[in-house]
Amino acid sequence: MSDADRERVAERLQAAMGEGRLTGEEFTQRLNAVLAARTFGEVEPLLADLPGAPMSAPIRDRAELRTTAASLKRRGQWTVPRQLLVTAKAGSVKLDFTDTRIPHRVVEIDLDVTAGSTVLVLPRGATVDVEDVEMIAGSAKVRKVTTSPIPGDGLHFVVRGKQRFGSLVVRTQRRLGPWRW
Which residues does the UniProt record annotate as the domain DUF1707 (predicted)? Predict the structure, then answer.
């Protein structure tokens, strides 16, 4: 949590005290806990019985994922920023967007991958634009995903950058009975 986040929580607590929802003693105890908190998870219980939306980490507009000589994987529940910078040297990248929280319609992915493969697993119904990916000694495949340079009504991914000495695969999630990959 940043100092600005703590300040927002303190303002909510102060408003709750002003509305008579907290006594002075409860306010002081909660405020001290907020000032000592390092994560949003520590603060959420302090606000759970108060009206209003729960506090959460702000949605990042941009994030960078980096790896060297190792694989980089993201799957399950994670919040996807509007712009994702992916840098990999001698390692594979697999980003699974099927169970993610995507708060905007267009996701931009900038690749800088050398000597490794990249797999992007998109949710069903999403579209992708891979026209601005420079392939150097590798191949690009788009499987069961509609390609379009223009966003449609649903979720749209714009992939650009460089993929050197490896492959780029954009696909939907595969299923066989209870298994998914």
Answer: 2-51
